[in-house]
Specification:
The chain is of the alpha/beta class and about 290 residues long. The protein has a domain of about 200 residues. It is built from 11 helices and 9 strands. Strands 1-9-8-2-5-3-4 form a 7-stranded mixed β-sheet, sandwiched between helices. α3 crosses α4. The relative contact order is 0.15. The model has no long low-confidence stretch (mean pLDDT about 90).
Length: about 290
């Protein structure tokens, strides 16, 4: 009970902070970067190890540059995520611009539903808000429940306040079958780390064996959806574009794991372009092939 009370107090504090203007939050972000990187050293060893394993061909100096850029952007992302709690629709439309919304209507006009694979790359939280008013078709966002139910509910309400439907990862297949007779678009984070029980497939991703969720491939073949990638690009501080990239249009004529490899390799290519915008502080490679029996 005490924990829930403190969590609710924490969410109320986040809401109050979200009311502050962007220019002030970016001043906080500049200070936060110094604290996280130089004073606290928040997960710096995790980031450093991940970068070393992912880019062995780069020099130590090059990796150090990426590391600093990452922490700088992470501080911005933290403040932007808090700001998203109270951002208006007009503000989201101005700061998160879709470059090709017509692609969705192209597939919908053919009677095809869509699965959009995404990564923890750039500002995926603001993209969730924009996704909410992107089309009049049913919009679903798959989320992985966190241990703190209060914060999970709080951020789900934030992500869905412009019309998207939040679906727990374990309920995704049931919900997609439930809505199979209507046109839908469903967004899944394709770079989540599965549990050891769910680690059924390993792909070579960023130079190392990586446990990958098979959700995109399984769902696509069951419901016969097209697969696109939800690509987000930073234009300038606090301003982004996102582009839908076609990946697979005929999922039933693909080989086993082909769809998985396609979206994994696309994300990898995106990260290699500008690595500082991916979530390097996550322990993405904690599960090894030898751990799975």
């Amino acid at each position: 009970m005490i924990k829930k009370g403190l969590s609710r107090l924490g969410t109320f504090f986040l809401y109050l902070v979200s009311l502050l203007p962007f220019w002030f939050l970016y001043l906080v972000a500049d200070l936060l970067f110094v604290i996280l990187y130089y004073i606290v050293g928040y997960r710096r060893n995790v980031v450093r190890g991940n970068l070393q394993n992912s880019f062995p061909e780069k020099s130590a100096e090059e990796r150090k540059t990426i590391e600093k850029k990452y922490f700088k952007y992470m501080a911005d992302l933290m403040m932007e995520t808090i700001k998203s709690v109270s951002m208006s629709k007009k503000s989201v439309q101005r700061r998160m611009v879709c470059t090709n919304p017509e692609l969705l209507e192209h597939y919908f006009s053919q009677g095809k539903s869509i699965i959009a694979a995404a990564g923890h790359y750039a500002n995926w939280e603001m993209a969730c808000l924009s996704f909410g008013f992107l089309t009049d078709k049913r919009r679903m966002i798959v989320y992985k429940p966190q241990s703190n139910e209060v914060f999970t509910d709080f951020f789900n309400k934030t992500r869905s306040r412009f019309g998207a439907t939040m679906i727990s990862m374990r309920q995704t297949l049931r919900k997609m079958i439930e809505y199979k007779n209507e046109l839908t678009i469903t967004v899944l984070a394709s770079d989540q780390t599965p549990t050891r029980e769910d680690a059924k497939y390993f792909s070579t991703f960023l130079n190392q064996p990586t446990a990958v969720f098979l959700g995109v491939e399984k769902l696509t073949k069951v419901v016969d959806c097209v697969v696109i990638f939800y690509r987000i690009d930073l234009v300038k501080r606090g301003h982004y574009t996102y582009t839908f990239v076609p990946l697979v249009e005929d999922p039933k004529n693909t080989k086993p794991y082909e769809i998985t490899e396609i979206h994994v390799k696309y994300l990898e290519s995106l990260i290699k372009e500008k690595p500082e915008y991916w979530l390097w502080s996550h322990r993405r490679w904690k599960i090894k092939p030898l751990d799975v029996h």
